[in-house]
Amino acid sequence: MRVLILGADGYLGWPTAMRFSALGHDVHTVDNYLRRSMHAVNGSDSLTPIKRFDERLAAWGEISRREMTHTEGDLTDYSVVERVFREFEPEAIVHYAEQPSAPYSMASRTNAVDTQVNNVVGTLNVLFAMRDLAPDAHLVKLGTMGEYGTPNIDIEEGYLEVTRNGRSDRLPFPKLPGSLYHCSKVHDSTNIHFASRIWGLRATDLNQGVVYGVDTPETVLDERLATRFDYDEVFGTALNRFCVQAVIGHPLTVYGEGGQTRGYLNIRDTLRCIELAVVNPADEGEFRVFNQFTEQFSIQDLAELVQQAGADVGLDVSIEPTTNPRVEAEQHYYNAKHTKLLDLGLEPHLLTREVVESMLRAIRRHRTRVIVEAVPPRTRWRASQAQPA
Ligand code: NAD
Ligand code: USQ
């Protein structure tokens, strides 16, 4: 199958591109290196040393004896998207190419606007290219569990059966996003649903939880194939951050009461979910939604797990409640359905103490690369909030 990977230089995009290539698909990649340039401005960097994209491609060619083709370009420029679709004629499009950080989107008006323009316009361009140039292709779009927020009812997979005043319908599940980045994902979902209903496009929206880990069957083959691993306050996610904090002796930054509960999954399961979605495409005109995570944890649970695993590898890890720089529920009900990918054959890699221990050992190897000033939280959701400790 001809598989187009948008955002292929990213944390998830690069391992995904190699996976599809290893599976024998014909892979074309696109990226404008936005993530690398945002880190340069932010004064942060991946803990794992990562190669330039052209070097990654060359290393993959040498190791796998398979070739991937690449376009350097910005999805918000329609001429780039149009050219890629005309030349490559994709059958499946895996779309990762967005600004993915909630704190980045909340840091300033400019960042919020950049995030929403980048994400919403890029996705709209992809939808128009599909309509006009690849109407039978299948879009596999990365959404996020954070689109739903934390409602006080069970979260369904995309849709809710509603009966009101004696009438029933199956409607999109209500959205309560927690940042302007998460809002951009909701806007994308609305636009993709529209394109499926009105133009008959095939689409799968993967409402993914927080991903952890860096090892995939391909990244472990050679250091040059490593993917990025971020721990700074803007781009690092909670578990990855806690593991780095444990290694450098920084107290684990549990925001507020620590009852914030989210869905989590191992990066290996991300790749498998994408593969399952691609090989089992949505029907014509179908907007399919899968909740893509394997387990749910509170932030306090994660911090305690890192503390225990740290003790196993000789680290004295402390947990320090930190003034929450975000505006979010710190204690809440959370029960999100996630059966559709399991029904397709997903066999989860669960988060055990041993998995965390292996992450801690891997981080230790790169200990000297940690930029300590990038760790403490700085970005506040409200200008009036007290400066976080
Ligand atoms: P990432 O920033 O590492 O990867 C995104 C890639 O897309 C980057 O390489 C970036 O340069 C590129 N890009 C962004 N805008 C672009 C544009 N306009 N044109 C071309 N390329 C562009 O992020 P990630 O963590 O790999 O996340 C990938 C996707 O998955 C994102 O859409 C994110 O919202 C979603 N997601 C991530 C997680 C997670 O825990 N990492 C969880 C849920 C959803
Ligand atoms: N948190 C802490 N301490 C920290 C960092 C985070 O307590 O040092 C808390 C946050 O307040 C939040 C929770 O951990 O309650 C999750 O935050 P996060 O930074 O790990 O993840 P989030 O901002 O939700 O975003 C990440 C990815 C994003 C993806 C999302 C999936 O950056 O691309 O969409 O996870 S989800 O959370 O399911 O929406």
What does this structure look like?
By secondary structure, the chain is α/β, with parallel strands linked by helices. 38% of the residues lie in helices and 19% in strands. It is built from twelve helices and 14 strands. A seven-stranded parallel beta sheet has the order 3-2-1-4-5-8-12, with helices on both faces. A three-stranded mixed beta sheet has the order 9-11-13. The chain is globular. The termini are far apart. The site of nicotinamide-adenine-dinucleotide has 28 residues, from β2, α2, α6, β5 and β9.
CATH architecture annotation name: 3-Layer(aba) Sandwich
The gross shape turns out to be globular
Total beta-strand segments:
14
Q: Quote the CATH topology.
A: Rossmann fold
Low-confidence stretches: none
**Over the alpha carbons, how many angstroms does the gyration radius reach?**
20 Å
| SSE class | alpha/beta
Number of domains: 1
Q: Which strand order spans the largest sheet, edge to edge or round the barrel?
A: 3-2-1-4-5-8-12
User: How many helices in DSSP terms?
Assistant: 12
How far is it from the N-terminal to the C-terminal residue, by CA? 51 Å
The CATH homologous superfamily? NAD(P)-binding Rossmann-like Domain
What is the H/E string?
EHEHHEHEHHEEEHEEHEEHEEHEHH
Largest sheet: 7 strands, parallel
The helicity comes to 25-40%
Strand coverage percent: 15-25%
Summed over residues and divided by their number, the pLDDT gives a mean of 97
Which CATH C-level class is it?
A: Alpha Beta
Oligomer: single chain
The bound ligands are: nicotinamide-adenine-dinucleotide, sulfoquinovose-uridine-C1,5'-diphosphate
